Amino acid sequence: MRPIFAAVLLAAVVPACAYDGAGLEGTTANPLRHDLGHRAFLDLTADSQVAVSASTDHGPLDGVSPKVVGGRAVLRATDDGVVLVEDLDVALDDVVVPPGTIGTAPLHLTEVVLHLGTQIAAEGDWSEHSVIGAGAADLLLDWSLVLPDGTPYPLATQKLRDQMFTVVVDRTDSGAITAHVMTSATGELRTFADRVTLSDLQVEVVANRAVVVE
Fold first, then answer.
1. Do 164 and 158 contact (CB within 8 A), yes or no?
2. Model pTM?
3. N or C: which end of the chain has fewer CB within 10 A?
4. Residues of the chain whose pLDDT is less than 50?
């Protein structure tokens, strides 16, 4: 799959889900549920990946791949065991679309960020040290076009609504937490400028605990 996090991706916006709950009681016997009873702030790792195929009438576009350069995830569990991904920000490196693809000049995209438009609420299947669940949320793409004078010009947010996510969270005996947040969308997603077709989105975010607060 040739990721070209170019000119358009997908994403979505919808009013944020109104989940509350003070979290799980500290007396619970399950250490992971105890830890997620308060918000866990996790840093994205270098294992995180985002990919989407791009093609033109002349075939696939090669050599344009977005690299995850930072971000964070915020997770919490409710009293009834629902895992909430309250925040997910995935910062991507700049993308340069080769000249001749859309116009005579290269297309330089910057400030490319994937994030949630609504939180993920995943019904958790719990064990002592792990939980897995799935839930739908909106996925957003923010991005800017670099103008000839070097100034970033914000472009319209791209939207992918009600995207299904899988959430897996593991805890080691030492208390380290790792979360995997994954989603995919197959088939054609969008055509940009009547020349570039985007398809087959794959997102796999890997995040480790930085701190646990609240």
1. no
2. 0.79
3. C
4. 1-27, 211-214
Give the CA angle between residues 51, 57, 59 to the nearest 5°: 50
Q: Residue 5: helix, strand or coil by DSSP?
A: coil
Residue 201 is predicted with a pLDDT of 85
Domain ranges within the chain, ordered by starting residue: 31-212
The 3 state secondary structure assigned to 195-207 is CEEEEEEEEEEEE
Residue 146, Cβ density class (10 Å: 0-12 exposed, 13-18 middle, ≥19 buried): middle
Dist CA 186 CA 22 (whole Å): 37
Please give the structure tokens belonging to residue 160. Answer: 């992918």
Burial status of residue 69 (CB atoms within 10 A of its CB: 0-12, 13-18, 19 or more) = middle
pLDDT the model gives residue 4: 33
Residue 123's Cβ-side half-sphere holds a number of Cα atoms within 13 Å equal to: 0
Q: Which residue has the tokens 């380290």?
A: 176
Cβ-Cβ contacts under 8 Å for 96 (sequence gap 6 or more): 64, 106, 107, 108, 109
197's CB contacts (< 8 A; 6+ apart) are 54, 55, 56, 188, 190, 191
- CATH fold of the domain at 31-212: Porin (2.40.160)
d(CA 87, CA 119): 7
Give the whole-angstrom CA distance, residue 52 versus residue 6.
9
Beta carbons of 114 and 92 less than 8 angstroms apart:
yes
